[in-house]
Write a structure and sequence with these properties.
single chain; mainly alpha; Regulator of G-protein Signalling 4, domain 2; 2 domains; 13 helices; 2 strands; globular; Regulator of G protein signaling superfamily; RGS; RGS_sf; RGS_subdomain_2
Length: 313
């Protein structure tokens, strides 16, 4: 029995003639391949690609295979920024106080804003609102620890590592970050045994884990009013922010403190007779003092004590 092949219809330019042509398996296969190729050519949106990458990294275990990838991406970008800064210093003959512009942040994302100062204030403000500021603070602390590896003794580095551990990793840490038990145990073991302490690797896995959490927060930050305020105040291409712009960014952080203080006062005035309310107020007051110390230390590290408000709350 002969197989019947489907005919395709083609009209001539006059529209009066109809020609039947046989479609072979080869032509059908070719047509399907063309359709698939067209679908493959369509690139995904930048946001979809970034979201997919974050999901992939977040669901993966932070092991030796993924850790270098996450950390190296940021470290490579940091080297690029340092090199650019050195070129500017050579050109002007003195240290040049440059920052990362908003255009660069829009292009490079999280790794760029982490190397900034003024824009980073706005990201910290968002993280404080999101109750995840400890991730950024830990990352910045480890960055400073890494910078000291070349100039400090093993004893000094171990002391620094113990302070970071006590602040962000131990079970009693006030700013405890969310780490895998294996990563946490590895850091603990290195600090307990002097012979096992390795300043080059002790925080690598933890830093990679936190970087992924920051990526997730950064994507949400892009959709907020505070992000738009950052763009408006900083400008698109500015790399040297004046005192007014710095003050505006710092004031945002202390505005967050002011809101916390007002909330605590409202709670206190609203229910003085309730023991439960007093307990809640005590917890909130403790969090307020902790937030205050976070913001003050951040501002001092970024801009110096002179940029603290004269009357900070």
């Amino acid at each position: 029995m002969s197989k019947v092949r489907r005919a395709s219809v083609h009209s001539s330019s006059s529209g009066s003639d109809i020609i039947l042509s046989t479609r072979t398996r080869k032509s059908i296969s070719k047509s399907r391949r063309s359709s698939l190729a067209e679908e493959a050519i369509k690139p995904p949106s930048r946001r979809a690609s970034l979201a997919a990458a974050i999901t992939s990294l977040a669901t993966a275990t932070i092991d030796e295979e993924h850790t270098p990838l996450v950390v190296d991406v940021h470290d490579s970008y940091k080297k690029k920024i340092v090199k650019s800064s050195q070129k500017l210093n050579c050109f002007f003959g003195e240290p040049t106080p440059v920052d990362v512009c908003i255009s660069e942040i829009k292009k490079e994302g999280l790794k760029a804003i982490l190397e900034s100062k003024v824009p980073l204030c706005y990201f910290l403000y968002y993280l404080l609102d999101e109750f995840s500021s400890e991730n950024l603070l830990f990352f910045l602390e480890v960055e400073r620890f890494d910078e000291h590896r070349r100039i400090s003794t093993v004893g000094e580095l171990k002391t620094m590592a113990e302070r970071i551990y006590g602040t962000y990793i131990s079970n009693s840490a006030q700013l405890q970050i969310n780490l895998d038990d294996k990563v946490k145990r590895n850091i603990t073991n290195q600090l307990l045994a002097i012979s096992d302490f390795n300043a080059n690797t002790i925080f690598v896995e933890a830093k990679a884990s936190v970087y992924i959490l920051l990526e997730s927060s950064y994507i949400r930050f892009l959709e907020t009013n505070i992000y738009q305020e950052m763009v408006r105040h900083c400008g698109e291409f500015t790399i040297h922010y004046d005192e007014r712009t710095i003050k505006s960014a710092v004031n945002y952080l202390f505005q967050h403190l002011k809101q916390q203080k007002e909330s605590i006062n409202a709670q206190f005035n609203g229910s003085k007779d309730s023991n439960l309310s007093e307990s809640i107020i005590a917890v909130n007051s403790h969090y307020y003092n902790l937030t205050k110390s976070i913001i003050e230390r951040f501002v001092i590290n970024m801009f110096g004590k002179a940029h603290l408000p004269l009357k900070h709350l």
